[in-house]
Design brief:
By secondary structure, the chain is mostly helical. The protein contains five helices and five strands, in the order αββαβααββα. The strands form two sheets. Strands 3-5-4 form a three-stranded antiparallel sheet. Strands 1-2 form a two-stranded antiparallel ribbon. Helix 2 crosses helix 3. The longest helix has 29 residues, at about 1-30. It is elongated and about 65 Å long.
């Protein structure tokens, strides 16, 4: 019983520290201060920031990254190169899934979006429509992120 009470107290203290940090940041915004108020670092409290997209691993050299030809991204790239124009994700997915290995829609969107966010290989020309960045550079259209 004593250990449960101590653990509960520590959890509550961590929550209070987190909420205090959020309150300090909100007060700073209300006061018009642009600098971010850093909360005090305490043991057991994470000051983790949002992760940057990790670079994919693979096989074809493209902008410093390597795309494996048999991966969903490699297959999508090949399909787009052959087609010569951007494709909506559902059309792209149906062509990618013609091979042996099936890919889920959310997985393909996530994989392609990672490249879009890094500004490498793929671009998003419309919502859920992907093209190749090389086309965007030639035409000057589309959005890179």
């Amino acid at each position: 019983m004593g250990k449960d009470l101590i653990a509960s107290i520590k959890e509550k203290q961590a929550l209070v520290a987190k909420l205090q940090a959020e309150l300090d940041e909100a007060r700073a915004l209300l006061d018009g201060r642009s600098e971010k108020v850093d909360p005090p670092v305490k043991r057991g409290i994470s000051n983790r920031t949002q992760r940057k997209p990790r670079p994919p691993s693979g096989g074809v050299q493209e902008g410093g990254l390597v795309i494996k030809p048999k991966s969903s991204v490699g297959r999508a790239q090949r399909i787009l190169q052959k087609g010569g124009h951007p494709l909506p994700i559902d059309d792209l997915l149906s062509q990618v899934n013609k091979g042996r290995k099936r890919v889920k829609r959310a997985t393909l969107i996530g994989n392609l979006s990672r490249y879009v966010k890094m500004g490498v290989v793929f671009c998003r020309t419309a919502p859920n429509t992907f093209g190749l960045l090389e086309w965007e550079r030639k035409t000057g259209q589309g959005e890179a992120a």
